[in-house]
Amino acid sequence: MSYTSVKGMDDLCPPESYRWAEIEKKAKAIFESFSFSPIVTPAVERTELFSRGIGRATDIVEKQMYTFLDKNGESLSLRPEGTAPVVRAYLEHQLYHPDPYQKFYYWGPMYRYERMQKGRYREFHQFGVEVFGSASYRIDAEIIFMMMHLYRELGVKKFEIQLNSLGCHECRPKYREQLLKELRGQKSALCADCQNRLEKNPLRTFDCKNEGCQKIAQTTLPRMVDHLCEPCKAHFEGVKTALNQLNTPFILNPNIVRGLDYYVRTTFEIVSGDLGAQNALGGGGRYDGLVKELGGKDTPAFGYAGGIERLLLVLENETQPKYGVNVFVAALGPKAQAFSYGLIHKLRLKGIKCEIDYDDSSLKAQMKKADRMNSQCVLIIGEDEMNKGEAILRNMSTKEQKTIPFGEILDEFKKKS
Ligand SMILES: [Zn+2]
Ligand SMILES: [Zn+2]
Fold first, then answer.
1. Closest-approaching ligand to the CA atom of 288
2. pLDDT tens per residue across span 369-403
3. How far apart are CA 310 and CA 278, in angstroms?
């Protein structure tokens, strides 16, 4: 019997896993420099949290959740996304007290039972940020700016920020009526899906993949952005002005819609030029109604979630993962081995990545090993070197060699790291 990982749930092995570690390190550093605090929530929640927080009638809740009864008969689900759990934690631990303005970032696995395709997994990973307690358009713009900064820092070359406004509880119902009127008139030209959900969710025609529907959406349907109430219009103008101030290029895309009522005003997606159909690196926006929906006070909120597997796919084409050790110590003979064993641990305590051979291998075999480990240099210490009190340092890319006295080895590597 041999074992493989579960379909749609992949291992990530070196060297690709180094890329992963680098994304994590850079993302967390950037989130912290924008004063977000880390928050960690469980991978399992009560199913009810997601049916209320994402919506019972969504594909995610209806078809894609891993839901099961635990031994107590309670319905639990693996989290399909990260926002509802963060809102739950915000309320459960009264993190809004005394100041509702709070900023969190998270990073972790999410689960959806999806049809398999490139860049789509059943266990996938997301990083996300949530800001609670401010309705300011400046928050919207700075999160978009922060994400642009992150993708640039990671080396994503081609991506686009697509922006839309979804209006609010004042202007959206009126717009919806107009949209419905228009759609009813063209019902026979819509695909079966759009016809079925027309009365319940007319907005979905905007993100329908059917070509006929796309054409109708782009040419004849009224657009939310043209029907915003005055406060929504001012908010949207504010976001655009702030993005310009922060040198953040964006394009307007009236086709970005969200099916749920608590999504309001700003919504955006970051789209890669390098991915096929699954081209969104992530999406976000304002969700002023969700905290209340989940039992809290009316609290404005804004968030973004980005997929890490998608990001890895894009980066595969654009950068090499950085990995390897700083120095491999090739020791020959028992005296040199004992000395080197002590030496690598002094180096490791200084944060210098080093390795050694444990098998009494020949110099040639040890050099090969160093090469496989992608070592920047090799420190060669044999009987002769032990007697002289100095080591041979070989640079693995230039092949240059020099000798350094034992007493100067630590300083030599401290300079480089
Ligand atoms: Zn409005
Ligand atoms: Zn359609």
1. 1
2. 999 999 999 999 999 999 999 999 999 999 999 99
3. 8
Residues bordering ligand 1, an ion, CB closer than 5 Å: 167-168, 170-171, 229, 232
Of all ligands present, the nearest one to the C-alpha of 232 is 1
- Looking at 3.65.10.10, 3.40.50.300, 2.30.39.10, 3.40.50.800, the CATH number of the domain 327-412 comes to 3.40.50.800
Name the one residue in this structure whose structure tokens are 């899906």.
193
User: Ligand 1 centre and the CA of 235: distance in Å?
Assistant: 9
Specify the 3-state DSSP secondary structure of 319: coil
Query: Going by C-beta distance under 8 Å and a sequence separation of 6 or more, which residues neighbour residue 171?
Result: 227, 228, 229, 232
pLDDT in tens, 78-129: 999 999 999 999 999 999 999 999 999 999 999 999 888 877 899 999 999 9
CATH number attached to the domain at 16-170+229-316 = 3.30.930.10
Ligand nearest to the CA of 167: 1
Among 137-151, 256-270, 319-333, top mean pLDDT goes to 137-151
CATH 3.30.930.10, the chain: domain bounds: 16-170+229-316
Burial class (CB in 10 A: 0-12, 13-18, 19+), 385: buried
* Separation of CA 273 and ligand 2 centre (Å): 24
In 3D, which of 310, 164, 167, 168 has the Cα closest to residue 250? 164
